[in-house]
Amino acid sequence: MVAEEPPVRILRRVTRVNEYISEADPSQHILVSDSGNDQMLLTSAWRILRRTGREVMMTGAFAGRNVGEVFPVVTAVAKLICEDGKAYAAYAHEALFDSNPAQRESLLSVHQSLRDQRNGIDDRARCERDVGGNPGLQMARFGCHKLPFFFDGTKCFFEVQWITEAEEQRLPKVELTNGDRPYEPLDRLHSRRRPVSATTGSFEWKKCLGFTPDHVDKTLRATTQLVPTVEAETREIMRDHFHTRLPQLKVRRVNDVCFVDTFFSSITSVRGFTCWNLY
């Protein structure tokens, strides 16, 4: 007896792809599920509720910009619309905010979201199958709410819109990330920032600036207060600049002795003078 061959699933799979694909509007702000992102990134469609005062330089692909951008860490809210048409007031804690209007894709960090044990994310499309042959759920769970993703053939995402205060009060609320404590990804390079007051000693200034004279210590104490941080402390990849990054410490001056010569003329000027000084 010849064993029966398993049914061919290619045509069925194509049919399911065509059934569940959602067309993505390039002008619409969206929230993309990204398992390779270290920390959640928000666009200008989100309304900032609180700024933590911390900043993070993230490396990656950004709209029309070079690698490496510094973003503030904020708590923000936006109107989130899922595949079934339901809308939610979505809150993102410990997220990076990108104010560039050209950036329209917010990134939902899967690892950051899953640190809240109430959340769960399965960003495999329903037309795809795992190693056991089970179809993907194409759904995220935030607390007690289950939100199905849109799928455009390449990514799972939610629609994101600006939310008003009235909509924030009316719509059901979902917490995308946990804001109980500062978020720290597994891979991050830290820079050491010494406070200015800790380096104002005469010996420290002498050692760092080629053993300057004692009388310039007060000048250094005053001028360095204008430089909160140096680019070399926060940028992973160095850049070349045509102008100095610390203009406060590079005042234009003549590094020489000035002389004055007086010249006498046999012709009186229009102002009635017969002598003038040349510096």
How does this model look, in words?
It is a single chain. Helices cover 14% and strands 28% of the residues. Strands 1, 2, 3, 4, 5, 6, 10, 11 and 12 form a nine-stranded mixed β-sheet that branches. The longest helix is centred in the N-terminal third of the chain and has 11 residues. The chain has six helices and 14 strands. With 279 residues, the protein is of the alpha+beta class. The protein has two domains: 166 residues, no CATH class; 45 residues, no CATH class.
Strand percent estimate: 25-35%
Task: Please state the structural category.
Answer: alpha+beta
Structural domains: how many: 2
Shape: elongated
- How many strands appear in the DSSP assignment? 14
Q: How far is the first residue's CA from the last residue's CA?
A: 112 Å
- The residue fraction in helices comes out at 10-25%
Rg on CA atoms, Å:
30 Å
Q: What is the succession of H and E elements?
A: HEEEEEEHEEEEEHEHHHEE
Largest sheet: 9 strands, mixed
* Poorly predicted spans: 1-22, 194-200
Number of helices: 6
Mean pLDDT: 77
